Amino acid sequence: MSDFILETVDLTKEFKGFAAVSDVNLKIRRGHIHALIGPNGAGKTTVFNLLTKFLPPTRGTIRFEGKDITHEAPAATARRGLVRSFQISATFPHLTVMENVRIGLQRKLGTAFHFWRSDKSLDVLNDRAMALLEDVDLAGFADTVTGEMPYGRKRALEIATTLALEPTMMLLDEPTQGMGQEDIARVVDLIRKVSANRTILMVEHNLSVVANLCDRITVLQRGSMLAEGSYDEVSKNPQVLEAYVGSDDMADAHH
Amino acid sequence: MRPTTLASQSALLNPAVLYTTLLVLGLVAPFTLYPTFLMKVLCFALFASAFNLLLGFAGLLSFGHAAFLGSAGYVCGLMMRDVGVTPELGILAGTVVAGLMGWLFGTLAIRRTGIYFAMITLALAQMVYFLVLQIKATGGEDGLQGVPRGHLFGLIDLSNNMAMYYTVYAVFCLGFFIIYRTIHSPFGQILKAIRENEPRAISLGYDVDKFKLLAFAISAALSGTAGATKTLVFQLASLSDVHWHMSGEVVLMTLLGGLGTILGPAVGGATIVTIENQLAESVGSWVTVIMGAIFVACVLLFRRGIVGEIQALLKRAGMQ
Question: In this complex, do B186 and A79 lie within 8 Å of one another by their Cβ atoms?
């Protein structure tokens, strides 16, 4: 088994001649929390969409656990264990919190197409769903309609739903975006907790989160890889500092 | 596990009480109301409920559902009149053909979403309309006339209006139960998830197109059941049932009654049929104008529809 769970070779995505992502060669080590950072428009979310097959690449290959998944359907890639979250919290707002998690658990029952069966047959999943909700501190919200929960809680629910799939690798797109300090701390703890026995790739703007959470960092700029390494290495790289000039983000993160 | 609010304790909102009451009402209704009118109501109530399965629970707006209602009517009529099968087989044949057509329409249409999805279904339905108009066997503008009601299971003479009514009522209840069960099934849960957030459903490993396609086929098949039954009642497969006007009317019924509610479309269907029946003689073609006004009022003033607004009222009352 290779040390690298996910690898890309010359991954490129062009939109009408504009290269949103060009020749990206990612190597994500099994068990790492790996961050993808870069200024706005660097192509981070496009990389996510390519890796999870929501966009077809113009060129290049994607290998997950040694298998070429470049041309696989997005749902099939998810079933392989490479599961993503979204930038805007992705929940099912009119379903209850419990039902949200059960959507994640339900596929394994093999009854997803059974329209003649009562939905009471899904109650066998309730214990497992409740355990997942407890993991993210949401047990008390089980019967709440999801849309009525505060934003930070929705992100936690999203993680619980993703965990329901028991993914070998999770892709988190800006998990702390739009959150206050308290919620950020909670989500960081949660990510650290769920990173046991799995690999995480996350897009993150908040560099203090990156600094204290991530094992390895890839910096993107205008669709290309600018640098890769540990936080200390990357944060001292003059090219990276230049890319972040004017944004002070790098300097802030050290305080 | 479900929260027990005051509202859900009130007898009216208790599903068991509500459905039992409605079931009994349906059984005694033909003793006070004109059975043929009631049968028409039931056919359109089933049609609208089947349509709502697709629009209300899968979030897919088909503008070609007349093709399923109408075609099944012709299939049933031809089977009854020219092949001589019994009524239950006629209805079954209409249902199966409509379901297969739904599978075909769905396969083509679900590749697109929103307005493009609606336009593909409309275009396909228009093709069906012109086929029905041109083919000799379907009787062109006159429709398919002289369809016998036949003997149910070869035994019960359906030319008796009461026997016909209870047959239609049984078909309606069965169809409605299938829709209810589909909505409250593991499959229905995934459908709702797709309606609420399709990318998220994909990212959880669901091949959403397959779910949409199955929902489309079930909806089309049950629309066919409604159309085939209607042909038996009126002994006529009418060209207006495949016309795009009918595809629009079922949208109106669903919205008026309450999109995405279980009972709403049936209520909407009953309301529209009643209004049309009452007004047809007194105001003539002004009915179209009145329907348009109802549609606008419904969308602007009470978007939740009749049943949706009642539910919201009861919920509010229960919270106080």
Answer: no
Contact call for A107 and B205, based on CB within 8 A: yes
Residue A58 phi, psi dihedral angles, 5° rounding: -75, -40
Give the Cα separation of A64 and A80 in Å (integer). 9
Chain B residues touching residue A109 (CB < 8 angstroms) = 186
* B134 and A CB contact within 8 Å: no
Nearest to B73 by CA among B221, B238, B217: B238
Task: Work out whether the CA dihedral B251, B252, B256, B262 comes out positive or negative.
Answer: negative
Interface test with B, best of A45, A69, A86, A103 (most B CBs within 10 A): A103
Using a CB-CB distance cutoff of 8 angstroms, which residues of chain A are in contact with residue B1?
98, 123, 126, 142-143
Report helix angle B244-257 to B287-301, nearest 10: 40
Give the HSE-up count for residue A216: Cα atoms under 13 Å, Cβ half-sphere.
16
**Mean pLDDT, chain A, whole residue set:** 88
Q: Name the residue type at position B85.
A: V
Beta carbons of A135 and A163 less than 8 angstroms apart: yes
User: Is some CB atom of chain A closer than 8 A to the CB atom of B220?
Assistant: no
Question: Stretch B178-182: mean pLDDT, rounded?
Answer: 96
Residues of chain A positioned with their CB less than 8 A from the CB of B210 = 113
Per-residue pLDDT tens over the stretch A80-137: 999 998 877 789 999 999 999 999 999 988 899 999 999 999 999 999 999 999 988 8
pLDDT beyond 60 at A255? no
∠ CA A24-A25-A29, rounded to 5°: 135
Tell me the mean pLDDT in the region A155-162. 89
What is the DSSP-derived secondary structure letter of residue A165? T
Size of interface A-B (CB pairs under 8 A): 111
Asked whether A11 and A62 are in contact (CB, 8 A), the reply is yes
- Selecting from A83, A115, A143 the residue whose C-beta is nearest the C-beta of B185 gives A115
DSSP notation for B61-93: --S-THHHHHHHHHHHHHIIIII---HHHHHHH
Higher pLDDT, B180 or A153: B180
Report how far Cα B18 is from the mean position of its chain's Cα atoms: 21
Interface confidence: ipTM more than 0.90: no
pTM for the whole structure: 0.87
User: Does residue B254 contact residue B240 with C-beta atoms inside 8 Å?
Assistant: no
Residue spans per domain, chain B:
28-243
The answer to whether the Cβ–Cβ distance between A107 and B206 falls below 8 Å is yes
Q: What is the mean pLDDT of residues B274-301?
A: 84
Residue B169: HSE in the Cβ half-sphere, 13 Å Cα cutoff: 19
